[in-house]
Specification:
The complex is a heterodimer.
Chain A (H helix, E strand, L loop, with lengths): L2 E12 L4 E13 L3 E6 L5 H8 L7 E6 L2 E2 L5 H8 E4 L11 H11 L4 H14 L16 H14 L4 E5 L7 H16 L4 E5 L3 H6 L2 E6 L2 E7 L5
Parallel strand pairs in A: 3-8, 3-9, 6-7, 7-8
Antiparallel strand pairs in A: 1-2, 1-4, 4-5, 9-10
Chain B lengths: L1 H10 L2 H38 L2 E7 L3 E9 L4 E9 L18 E5 L2 E5 L18 E8 L3 E2 L1 E12 L8 E5 L9 E2 L5 E7 L19 E5 L22 E3 L10 H13 L3 E7 L6 H4 L3 E6 L4 H6 L3 E5 H7 L6 E11 L3 H4 L23 E13 L14 E4 L11 E4 L7 E5 L4 H11 L4 E6 L3 H37 L4 H9 L4 H46 L8 H13 L3 H32 L2 H5 L5
Parallel strand pairs in B: 9-12, 14-19, 16-18, 17-20
Antiparallel strand pairs in B: 1-21, 1-22, 2-3, 4-21, 5-14, 5-17, 6-8, 6-11, 7-10, 8-9, 11-12, 11-13, 15-18, 17-18
Classes of the chains: A alpha/beta, B alpha+beta.
Chain lengths: 229, 622
């Protein structure tokens, strides 16, 4: 069972002309088997917090621990490759690789033989409810929902149990939104994933086990609803 | 896997990739073509450098022309003619001016004569020899009179044509308007005679000649000697035109000059010219390929510089005397002549002359240097040169520095610098520079002419090719840079999101570099390889074109013998382009393009990797 603890984390974006304080002394924690929602208005710092959890950068101040180990002392490349996976609002699939190749990519990166990688990728694609015919399709040939499910399949394929999703339904219609949220819920509650979703959508937030509400770079409210493993 | 996926993504944009491949191939072809032409040019220039020599000759020009008159007994009046005057002799030192670069500096070189009585110097068919037109005889006049076509009988031939003995000849002071020297019948006189022409009317306008009786003109005992400055050393005793031969005459002091003259006359048939020089090519006959070494080898530059006792002998002399390469020949050098080239006195077809072997006192010169020379080469001539400035008959060529004894007391003639005596060598392609410097010296009574076997024309061709190769090289490089920059932008900068995704999936920076670089560099490699092959094919075509130009260029060098042939062979071998030679430059050019591609790609990739994935993947949302 994995547990992430965020302690006094601050983060700022420094550009040539200004410094934007995106996070200010944030404290929160996450556990496996639960579905978390981080909500707040645009610019509140929720995506920045998710990026730090996903290991895309390090806090300027404060620490993030995974099972008691300081994330800043871990090899972040290995962390991103083997432990944490991210799903983005814009999907961020490789446009020149087909669905199967996109899902196989992190597996092959780990050094898994092609045949095994293909088998596991197909299984993951199946788990997100996509038909086999999607395997050979390139992202531009797929709908937004399909692309997002391929992105989730890629995140699952990597084998890590931490799944971070940044507005995963932001570009989807209602039907696809429901499909994606259901998959994420299932991954948390049935597969034991720690699922952290950044969303504006109150409907999705309402389905989370824990909701962290943010404002001006700080968590202003934590709402626990129970559920999960 | 990374490389495979990189290539896979590259080939899934086939049009863009194909365009990249084609443009890169074109730039590589241009670059390799330029590189090959540049290399061919360099190779040809080096080859030509060894085959061509730029030699200059110096000639002191006349300062004025004057009309001179000479009595001519045949026409019974003065005969007038124009004569060029040269003023004071100009020293070769004036050619040693600032900025000038000589391979061999100008030198008003002498030529020597070797006295070799044991050598066969003339094949049988040539009858006239040096000074053959001079005879030293005793005559008895058939009547008492001045020498104005006075009939005499030759009673003794001391030197010269023995057939004159007992013949009736006419003796005339042909060029003296007032002959006063009287010869008396019944007496015997010694005199040196110059064969003139048919006898002419005497002063009473009576025709004197019959039965092929020739007229001879008495010539004084004149002898010439010069010092190193070109100043004439005069005789202490006056020249005499004739002397009466009386009892015991040959034991008297008066007879000594005549005896020396007799000795000299008899030596004339055993003289051959020896040309000391610093390089064979300084002799115009060799430079113009009219003469060339046919057997053995030329004297090397080291041998010239070190003054080794080696020599080149002419084919005729070698054949007449059974001389072979490797034989040693002792050269007793007796006189030095600064006034003319050997061709003036030693004519191929005989008849040369005006040569003198006596000093200012009228004494026959002594040998000043006598050493054995190894024959290293035997030369022949395409066409015999009977000009006054060419090689002399039987001319032997030796290194100038090999003659270590002084010839200061053996200088028999001195004259202005001319193309037969004064030449120099400058680096190929240096004519224009030389003449610019020369003009600044302000010396206008020396004429300098250059002979470069057409190197100037060739140099122009080479320069044109050099410009062409630079254009191809620059075009190829610029095009390659532009193409690489454009496609690195398309394949790398515009794929920055791909890098961000790869980074978010846990790919290390090195793996990201490999991912971006492998696909791109594969196309660069293929494009460069294809371009290099095309470049080689184009080089082959271009070389064929250059070959045509070279055939044209060869016409400058193949007019004669020897070196022309050698040059043709050398050029022919240079014209061959082997596949390995082409492959060498193609590979070098290809590697340069690859390095260029790798370098440019790395600049773009570094820009991609500078961005943290968080900025790219989530920057829009926050």
């Amino acid at each position: 069972m994995d547990k992430m603890v965020v302690e006094q984390v601050s983060y700022s974006y420094i550009s040539k002309y200004q410094t934007i304080l995106a996070l200010r002394e944030v404290n929160c924690s996450f556990e496996s088997g639960r579905f978390y929602a981080i909500t707040g208005e645009s610019g509140s710092g929720k995506s920045t917090l998710l990026s730090l959890l996903a290991g895309l950068d390090l806090p300027k101040e404060g620490k993030i621990y995974l099972n008691g180990e300081d994330l800043s002392k871990m090899d972040r490349d290995i962390y991103r490759r083997d432990i944490a996976a991210v799903v983005y609002q814009a999907f961020h699939l490789f446009p020149l690789l087909n669905a199967l190749e996109n899902v196989m990519y992190p597996l092959e990166l780990k050094g898994m033989p092609k045949a095994r990688a293909a088998a596991r990728a197909k299984k993951c694609i199946g788990q997100v409810g996509l038909p086999e015919k999607i395997h050979g399709q390139f992202p531009k040939m797929m709908s937004g929902g399909e692309q997002q499910r391929v992105a989730i399949a890629r995140a699952m394929a990597a084998g890590g149990k931490l799944l971070f999703a940044d507005e995963p339904t932001g570009n989807l219609d209602t039907e696809n939104e429901e499909n994606v949220v259901a998959i994420l819920e299932r991954l948390a509650h049935e597969e034991g994933y720690m699922v952290v979703v950044v969303t504006h959508n109150p409907g999705i937030a309402a389905r989370a086990d824990v909701e962290y509400r943010m404002r001006d770079g700080q968590i202003v409210e934590e709402q626990k609803r129970g559920g999960g493993q | 896997m990374i490389i495979k996926n990189s290539l896979k993504q590259m080939f899934r944009t086939p049009l863009k990739t194909f365009l990249f491949f084609c443009l890169l191939a074109v730039s590589a072809a241009l670059f390799v073509l330029g590189l090959n032409i540049s290399w061919l040019n360099q190779r040809d220039a080096s080859a030509f450098e060894g085959l061509f020599n730029t030699v200059g000759t110096v000639e002191q020009k006349p300062t004025e022309t004057e009309i001179d008159g000479e009595w001519d007994a045949e026409i019974d009046q003065y005969y007038y003619y124009s004569r060029e005057k040269y003023g004071a002799l100009v020293s070769e030192d004036v050619l040693d001016f600032e900025g000038v670069d000589y391979i061999h500096a100008p030198m008003n070189r002498p030529y020597f004569t070797a006295y070799m009585p044991d050598m066969i110097l003339r094949p049988g068919e040539v009858t006239e020899r040096v000074n053959d037109w001079l005879v030293l005889v005793e005559v008895t006049p058939l009547r008492t009179d001045v020498m104005d076509s006075l009939p005499c009988t030759v009673t003794r031939v001391l030197a010269g044509d023995p057939d004159l003995l007992n013949r009736k000849i006419w003796v005339c002071e042909h060029y003296n308007p007032t002959p006063e020297t009287v010869m008396e019948t019944g007496k015997t006189y010694i005199m040196r005679l110059n064969q003139g022409t048919y006898p002419h009317d005497d002063r009473d306008e009576t025709y004197m000649g019959e039965n092929d009786e020739w007229e001879y003109t008495p010539i004084s005992q004149y002898a010439s000697q010069y010092n190193r400055k070109g100043e004439r050393i005069n005789s202490d005793t006056p020249d005499r035109l004739i002397d009466e031969v009386t009892e015991g005459f040959y034991e008297s002091d008066e007879a000594k000059p005549w005896l020396e003259l007799m000795k000299e006359s008899n030596m004339m048939n055993s003289l051959l010219p020896v040309q000391p020089v610093d390089a064979t090519k300084l002799l115009m006959a060799f430079h113009e390929n009219n003469a060339a070494v046919q057997d053995g080898r030329d004297i090397s530059q080291e041998e010239y510089a070190q003054g080794k006792r080696v020599c080149l002998v002419p084919e005729d002399l070698a054949m007449s005397n059974n001389l072979q390469v490797g034989d040693r020949l002792t050269l007793p050098l007796i006189a030095a002549d600064y006034g003319s080239a050997p061709g003036f006195a030693f004519k191929y077809d005989g008849g040369g002359g005006g040569y003198n072997l006596r000093n200012g006192k009228g004494e026959v010169l002594s040998v000043f240097d006598e050493n054995a020379y190894e024959i290293v080469g035997i030369y022949s001539m395409a066409e015999k040169d009977d000009s006054d400035f060419g090689l002399g008959y039987n001319e032997i060529i030796i290194p100038y520095a090999s003659v270590t004894s002084s010839w200061d007391n053996n200088i028999v003639s001195f004259g202005r610098m001319n193309k037969g005596t004064t030449s120099f060598q400058i680096p190929n392609g240096g004519i224009e520079h030389y003449l610019k410097l020369w003009e600044k010296q302000g010396i206008d009574n020396l004429e300098i002419k250059f002979y470069d076997n057409g190197y100037s024309v060739l140099e122009e061709n080479i320069n044109n090719r050099r410009v062409m190769s630079v254009l191809f090289l620059a075009g190829g490089v610029i095009m390659a840079i532009l193409v690489l920059a454009l496609f690195c932008h398309l394949f790398i900068s515009r794929a920055s999101m791909r890098t961000a995704i790869e980074r978010s999936l846990g790919m290390k920076k090195k793996q990201c570099i490999l991912s971006l670089l492998s696909g791109l560099m594969s196309i660069v490699l293929l494009g460069t390889a294809a371009g290099a092959v095309v470049g080689c094919v184009l080089t082959d075509k271009t070389a064929e074109q250059l070959k045509q130009e070279q055939i044209y260029d060869e016409t400058f060098t193949s007019g004669g013998i020897g070196d022309g042939k050698e040059g043709e062979e050398a050029l022919a071998s240079q014209q061959q382009i082997t596949p390995s030679e082409l492959a060498g430059t193609a590979v070098a050019g290809g590697i340069l393009i690859l390095l260029l591609g790798g370098g440019i790609a790395m600049v773009y990739i570094r820009q991609n990797l500078k961005k943290e994935p968080i900025m790219m993947l989530m920057g829009n949302e926050e």
